[in-house]
């Protein structure tokens, strides 16, 4: 087999405009490659092409970086970097190297032939929340006007979709944090439901530490006493999948104990009475039975939040623990109801927020990669939205496709009768990160054509017919929108390895080969200026945000409708962007997880992250320091549960559900509930916990139930 990686790609130092560089030759100010905190960093390339990372002060990270950030440059010159297009005619055979012209011709021909034989929707696209705004926008446009397929969705479906759906229905807008992160440090009490920022966004902890240092409260709901919960004033060891009951119980106590802000509810909200009718049924003892959180802890939570609300402020945050459930949307709604009852949203140093995950998880969900959206957070089934965006694109609104299925449903439909026969993947390693992995692999295998753009040979790329090597963070210019809704600049610090192209070029070349009438360009700033026009008047209005402004101001918060608008760091002070200007309580009821434990599968499995690995691990498993620090999945098990299953620390354990199994190493710990095991999802093959997880979808957000299913544990070997 011929080698598919090339090891000679040491990036050259670059020459880029003055505003891009900071003190010292060849030092570029940019932001991290990975998560939504988008920590500010500098990249310095030496004469030999080696790139070093330095921390940079910014309101979000205040000079801090986590281990992933510090090592973010290691993938640039990695021998595992893809640098040549790869092709094969037969998936049982190895790839061969190809020229860009040949590879792009093959892709364009496959698209044309598939669509000629099976219709426009026979070609599907999956995008990613790590793509820059420019790439995400261009990808959505490419799907709608070059492919004219309805079948496009993205991995944010697995991430922020429940948070987004609940925020939209309560507030009329979905911006993860409605205030700048430093506001958090000023508040008096914080509740985090299902977030472990000490590992997932370590520099975020500074803002929480500031709260604690002033005597404020930090309450963390998590089945594990995580590094974050360890710092908390109160840890709520909630049973996986029961946050909705917990939130109803907290609302119950807030009202029963006299903490509800009646004036706020009256003046600024609607729907309280209906929401209260269900919460009234969730008295604390019942909540304790369902969630495992004691009545005393529930009462203390409400008292601490209420004390905050009366003083410096209080903030309720959710993250994936509470959201990645088949009822994630309703769970987030229940927590928003609690925040509204306490009168938090729109008050100084107070409010409700969801912690966005991916680098551009926020921007990635605003500009049209989502099945039901057009740029500017417009709805694809809204005639006015279609007319506006079609006008910017120079096409007839009638030619734009309608809404397509969500990511997992799209995957389920691949290669089925009437389903897509070709799939283009941009920025997601779905073979590792999608639930029910065996099924997903089966559907990918049923495709006629799988095309993957990536920087490395991910598990998904390894299944493809065509792999196209693209640029990564330090090799391209663009914008990202961080977890605060602040649009920031990603800057090119080094030249990409020879042979690598940007996704903007790939899409432009393909659009030309497909004889697309709409204009495509590979220049990111031109793409951004078009995005501004396409978003103008939408909920996520970027019209007034230019690259120059972002450079000069260090970031601009959307919405920002005009060049003279200051941007919107804080939302809701004067009202909510709903029809009547009020926030809406949404009446929700608790329901159990889609799959409960039974005699055959008696243990709850939950999944998530560890500090040193990012997502599917495609990038971080290839960074030597990170691979050494977290070489394999550790299955966290309470000693009592381990004893009952004959498991010892260091054993290999097989985690088995009704859908499949995955293998990891036992890590005994008393920090987890004795009825629950935790396994991170950063590995592929037989270490992929997503072979085990349940694809039960939230009826509104279509979020899979990553955070709870039923398993049994089998010992594989001894330490
Ligand atoms: N190191 C690292 N950092 C990352 C990422 C990464 O892959 N690695 N990914 C980024 C992305 S895209 C995202 S979305 C964020 C995610 O950031 P987080 O949401 O903080 O991460 P998770 O580990 O998925 O889940 C958080 C916690 O939820 C808990 N949990 C599990 N089930 C439940 C439940 O039913 N209820 C409650 N209340 N808690 C539960 C888990 O024990 C876990 O500690 O991280 C971002 N940052
Ligand atoms: N069991 C379980 N599963 C989960 C989760 C969980 O908590 N538990 N969390 C879910 C969540 S929140 C998320 S966000 C998803 C994330 O899961 P994935 O969508 O798989 O995320 P990544 O691993 O970041 O995949 C990004 C891929 O794109 C490549 N890449 C990086 N930059 C670029 C670029 O600019 N262009 C292109 N074309 N490629 C690029 C990377 O090398 C990588 O292969 O996983 C979900 N899956
Ligand atoms: S917290 Fe996120 S953005 Fe900051 S250095 Fe770590 S991975 Fe990068
Ligand atoms: Mo995510």
From TrEMBL:
Q: Which InterPro entries match?
A: Asp_de-COase-like_dom_sf, MoPterin_dinucl-bd_dom, Mopterin_OxRdtase, Mopterin_OxRdtase_4Fe-4S_dom, Prok_molybdopt-oxidoreductase
Q: Which GO terms describe its biological process?
A: respiratory electron transport chain
What keywords sit in the KW lines?
4Fe-4S, Iron, Iron-sulfur, Metal-binding, Molybdenum, Oxidoreductase
One MF term in GO for this entry? molybdopterin cofactor binding
| Keyword Iron-sulfur assigned | yes
State the coiled-coil residue ranges: none
Electron transport: present as a keyword of the record? no
Q: Which domain of life is it from?
A: Bacteria
A family per Pfam: Molybdop_Fe4S4
GO cellular component terms listed in the entry, alphabetical order: membrane
Task: State the name under which the record lists this protein.
Answer: Assimilatory nitrate reductase catalytic subunit
């Amino acid at each position: 087999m011929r080698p598919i990686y090339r090891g000679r790609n040491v990036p050259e130092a670059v020459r880029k405009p003055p505003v891009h560089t900071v003190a010292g030759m060849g030092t570029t100010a940019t932001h991290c490659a990975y998560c939504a905190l988008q920590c500010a960093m500098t990249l310095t390339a030496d004469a030999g092409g080696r790139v070093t990372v330095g921390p940079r002060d910014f309101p979000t990270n205040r000079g801090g970086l986590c281990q992933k950030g510090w090592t973010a440059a290691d993938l640039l010159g990695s021998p595992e970097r893809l640098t040549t297009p790869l092709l094969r005619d037969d998936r049982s055979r190895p790839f061969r190297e190809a020229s860009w012209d040949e590879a792009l011709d093959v892709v364009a021909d496959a698209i044309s032939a598939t669509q000629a034989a099976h219709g426009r929707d026979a070609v599907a696209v999956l995008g990613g929340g790590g793509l820059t705004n420019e790439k995400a926008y261009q990808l959505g446009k490419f799907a709608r006007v070059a492919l004219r397929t309805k079948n496009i969705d993205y991995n944010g479906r697995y991430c922020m979709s429940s948070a987004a759906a609940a925020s939209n229905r309560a507030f009329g807008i979905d911006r993860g944090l409605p205030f700048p992160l430093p506001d958090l440090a000023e508040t008096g009490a914080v509740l985090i439901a299902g977030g472990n920022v000490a590992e997932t966004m370590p520099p975020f902890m500074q803002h929480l530490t500031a709260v604690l240092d002033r005597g404020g409260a930090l309450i963390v709901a998590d089945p594990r006493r995580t590094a974050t919960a360890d710092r908390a004033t109160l840890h709520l060891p909630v049973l996986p999948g029961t946050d909705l009951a917990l939130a109803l119980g907290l609302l119950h106590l807030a009202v029963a104990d006299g903490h509800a802000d009646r004036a706020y509810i009256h003046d600024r909200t609607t729907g309280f009475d209906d929401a209260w009718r269900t919460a009234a049924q969730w008295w604390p003892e019942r909540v304790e039975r369902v969630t495992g959180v004691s009545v005393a802890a529930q009462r203390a939570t409400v008292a601490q939040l209420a004390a905050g609300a009366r003083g410096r402020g209080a903030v309720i945050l959710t993250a994936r623990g509470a959201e990645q459930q088949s009822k994630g949307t309703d769970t987030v709604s229940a927590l928003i109801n609690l925040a509204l009852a306490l009168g938090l949203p729109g008050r100084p140093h107070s409010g409700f927020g969801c912690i966005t995950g991916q680098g551009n998880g926020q921007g990635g969900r605003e500009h049209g990669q989502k099945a039901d959206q057009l740029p500017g957070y417009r709805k694809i089934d809204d005639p006015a939205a279609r007319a506006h965006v079609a006008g910017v694109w120079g096409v007839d609104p009638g030619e734009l496709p309608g809404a397509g299925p969500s990511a997992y449903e799209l995957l389920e439909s691949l290669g089925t009768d009437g389903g897509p026969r070709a799939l283009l993947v941009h920025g997601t390693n779905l073979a590792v990160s999608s639930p029910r992995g065996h099924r997903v692999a089966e559907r990918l295998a049923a495709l006629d054509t799988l095309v993957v753009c990536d920087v490395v040979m991910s598990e998904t790329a390894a299944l493809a017919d065509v792999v196209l090597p693209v640029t990564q963070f330090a090799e391209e210019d663009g914008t990202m929108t961080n977890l605060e809704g602040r649009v920031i600049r990603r800057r090119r610090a080094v030249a990409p390895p020879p042979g690598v192209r940007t996704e903007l070029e790939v899409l432009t070349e393909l659009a030309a080969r497909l004889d697309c009438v709409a204009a495509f360009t590979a220049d990111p700033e031109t793409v951004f200026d078009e995005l501004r026009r396409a978003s103008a008047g939408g909920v996520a209005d970027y019209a007034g945000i230019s690259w120059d402004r972002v450079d000069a101001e260090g970031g601009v918060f959307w919405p920002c409708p005009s060049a003279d608008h200051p941007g919107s760091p804080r939302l809701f002070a004067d009202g909510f962007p709903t029809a009547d200007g009020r926030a809406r309580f949404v009446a929700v009821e608790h329901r159990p997880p889609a799959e409960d434990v039974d005699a055959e599968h008696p243990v709850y499995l939950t999944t998530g992250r560890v500090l040193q690995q990012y997502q599917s691990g495609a990038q971080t498993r290839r960074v030597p320091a990170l691979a050494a620090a977290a070489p394999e999945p550790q299955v966290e098990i309470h000693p009592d549960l381990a004893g009952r299953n004959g498991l010892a620390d260091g054993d290999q354990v097989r985690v088995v559900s009704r859908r499949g199994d995955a293998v990891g190493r036992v890590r005994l710990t008393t920090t987890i509930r004795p009825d629950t095991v935790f396994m991170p999802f950063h590995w592929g093959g037989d270490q992929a916990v997503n072979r085990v997880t349940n694809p039960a979808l939230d009826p509104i957000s279509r979020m899979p139930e990553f955070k709870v299913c039923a398993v049994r544990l089998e010992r594989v070997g001894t330490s």
